[in-house]
UniProtKB/TrEMBL annotation:
Top-level taxon of origin: Bacteria
Domain Cytochrome oxidase subunit I profile residues, every copy: 38-547
N-terminal signal peptide: none
Name recorded for this polypeptide: Cytochrome-c oxidase
Transmembrane segments: 41-64, 84-112, 124-144, 164-187, 208-234, 246-270, 282-303, 315-339, 364-384, 404-424, 444-461, 489-510, 552-572
Listed GO CC annotations: membrane
Source organism: Deinococcus proteolyticus (strain ATCC 35074 / DSM 20540 / JCM 6276 / NBRC 101906 / NCIMB 13154 / VKM Ac-1939 / CCM 2703 / MRP)
Keyword entries, A-Z: Electron transport, Membrane, Oxidoreductase, Respiratory chain, Transmembrane, Transmembrane helix, Transport
């Protein structure tokens, strides 16, 4: 097997425009500075995958539960994890919060900085990394001590220890450190380059960070105003409905904070891997601005069954949720077009025959493309979940974890895995050791998640609840009457496949990280793609759509106003009529 990464498919005799990168990165002369920037990025990415490794090792135990097999009574396991629910909390927090935020913080710091050719203060960047890691350590300590088995949603009145909430607050605050550094760098660039169009990758990154700022305000308010003082005993009771509402202000939009960084890889880099071109840069910019404007004010679709919320607002949030389908479909069509463009340039033809002419031997391409394919049923299921008519059927059933494992568990996780196959070589000068194994890990993970989704959606429809240790219930007859044999089998099998695929991935990943540096990472370029329709460089001559999508700060302010408009009328009546509940630690009983 070759020791270098399969190239970003470049072929000399291609139609004009193909194969050549659209953008060459501004070169960095100061080697020590570049090493420090790459170092902090690698630290974020590697920490992310360590968290994912632990989270992923717990997943199969949960899948076995949904196969009807209880492994949590095992004495050895009990030494590490006290209960199914502690395992579940660790799994959800490490995978969905820690892995994602660490990866994204490295990825979306590094890309815009290199894209703009700006110099940042790397001491500040390392400081932010240290703060984020401190937050992680505090949170993890509380979780491992079984002091905060409150599940991924942190729903009060279930009460975790102060350590958990303080750690989580520090963790989120650190993301603002990265956010601030990126937005500041971009504004500096704007000042030095008046009248210029922001380059695409930077535009996507800044739009995503601003969206996250608006999104995180809910969780930050919940944590600082409610959870921390309550866990410290300063306030005796807590209003569960207000806490839930603030949680979902952040809780839905956070999925775009995970997805949009993956979209950067889909839009800006995947065409290059496939030998194709970005269909339209102005359209990409529009998609990101639509997420910035409309990604946050939709959270009530998680609260259809909660009392004391006017139904009109639930319906408004539902319709706004459906509106997010627009940028999602823009993404689906644009990325498919870019792939077809690449395949036809590779000599592919026919209605679907071109698919064979895609670089299926390249693990980066395979991981990202499979992640996108699994996102088609994932996204469609999201529309079902958000519909007030269907929500009562699927709410709090196994359907829901079935749904989000083919969104965050694939579209996000597999994309980040696949990106690491070129990003680590680029950052550390350590080539991907075993491309074939890397490719197989992605196929197995993909089929694992598809089987998992089938098994869990199926069980959910039959009425099996989520977040329930159903393998250890007092009345197993209830479940026996549901005819669960086949979906249970599929779920258990998927857990084993995911364990195998996951271990293959981590073997390749850590072998790469711990190998010796053999080349200058700069030889492996960031895979910028050419475009069929570029945004241009000067605002004066750019299209109206490009000019409209350029002022991201103003658009972000508009986004914030929209969120306040759809949230304040919901929150104000709750605040003037508070219902306090005392804390509970159910997992201790
Ligand atoms: C080996 C792969 C994985 C397996 C077998 C697996 C399995 C499961 C199962 C069975 C549940 C449902 C448990 C319940 O409702 O009681 C669950 C929950 C969850 N999983 Fe995974 N999972 C895997 C990977 C991932 C990944 C990669 C992510 C995200 C990046 C993720 C995020 C979550 C979250 C957020 C929950 C919900 C936790 C909660 O309800 O509090 N999982 N997982
Ligand atoms: Cu949602």
């Amino acid at each position: 097997m070759t020791t270098t990464l399969p190239p970003h498919a470049v072929n000399a005799d291609r139609p004009a425009g193909h194969g050549a990168p659209a953008r060459t990165m501004p070169a960095v002369q100061d080697k020590a500075y570049l090493a420090s920037l790459k170092g902090v990025t690698a630290a974020y990415v590697i920490t992310a995958f360590v968290a994912l490794l632990i989270g992923v090792l717990i997943g199969p135990l949960q899948a076995l539960n949904y196969a009807g097999i209880n492994v949590y009574d095992n004495h050895l396991l009990k030494l590490l994890v006290k209960s199914y629910y502690q395992g579940l909390t660790l799994h959800g927090v490490l995978n969905a919060l820690v892995f994602t935020q660490f990866f994204i913080s490295g990825w979306m710091l590094y890309l815009p900085v290199r894209d703009l050719g700006m110099r940042i203060n790397t001491k500040f960047a390392w400081g932010t990394y240290a703060v984020m890691t401190t937050g992680l350590v505090l949170t993890a300590a509380a979780l491992l001590l079984n002091d905060a088995t409150v599940l991924y949603t942190l729903y009060p009145p279930m009460q975790g220890s102060p350590l958990f909430y303080i750690g989580a607050s520090i963790f989120v605050a650190a993301s603002w450190g990265v956010l601030g550094q990126v937005v500041y760098t971009w504004l500096q660039w704007k000042r030095q380059n008046p009248g210029k169009v922001t380059p695409l990758v930077t535009h996507m990154s800044v739009a995503t960070w601003l969206m996250w700022f608006i999104a995180s305000l809910g969780l930050v308010t919940e944590a600082l105003v409610m959870l921390v003082p309550w866990s410290l005993g300063i306030t005796k009771t807590i209003d569960p409905l207000i806490a839930r509402t603030l949680f979902w202000w952040t809780g839905h939009a956070i999925v775009y904070f995970w997805l949009l960084p993956a979209y950067i890889a889909w839009y800006a880099f995947l065409p290059r891997h496939a030998g194709g071109r970005v269909a339209s840069e102005p359209l990409v910019r529009l998609a990101f601005v639509l997420f910035l404007l409309n990604g946050v004010g939709v959270g009530l679709h998680h609260q259809f069954s909660n009392p004391n919320i006017n139904n009109t607002w639930k319906i408004i949030h539902m319709l706004l949720t459906f509106l997010v389908v627009v940028p999602s479909l823009l993404t689906a069509f644009s990325t498919a077009a870019a792939l077809e463009d690449g395949a036809r340039a590779n000599g592919g033809g026919g209605f679907v025959g071109w698919i064979r002419h895609l670089p299926w031997q390249n693990p980066v391409f395979v991981g990202i493309t499979l992640s996108m394919i699994s996102f088609i049923p994932g996204g469609a299921g999201g529309v079902v979940n958000a519909s007030q008519a269907f929500a009562p059927v699927v709410h709090n059933t196994a359907w829901i974890p079935g749904h989000f494992h083919i969104t965050v568990g694939t579209a996000v996780t597999m994309t980040f895995m696949a990106v690491s196959f070129w990003l680590i070589p680029h950052l550390l000068g350590k080539p991907l050791p075993n491309p074939k194994l890397a490719r197989w890990s992605q196929w197995i993970w993909f089929w694992g998640m598809i089987l998992f989704a089938v098994g869990m959606h199926w069980q959910g429809i039959l009425g099996v609840p989520r977040r329930a240790q159903i393998s250890a219930v007092a009345q197993p007859e209830v479940y026996e009457a549901m005819h669960l044999a086949l979906p249970r089998f599929l779920t258990g099998l998927s857990g084993i496949l995911l364990l195998i695929g996951g271990l293959m991935f981590f073997y390749v990943f850590f072998k790469m990280v711990f190998s010796r540096r053999v080349q200058d990472g700069e030889e492996i370029e960031i895979p910028y793609s050419p475009s069929i329709s570029a945004a241009g460089e000067d605002l004066a001559t750019a299209s109206p759509l490009v000019r409209l999508t350029e002022p991201l700060l103003a658009l972000g302010a508009l986004g914030l106003i929209i969120v306040l408009m759809v949230y304040l009328p919901v929150l104000l009546p709750m605040v003037t009529n508070m219902q306090g509940a005392p804390g509970q630690m159910l997992w201790r009983n």
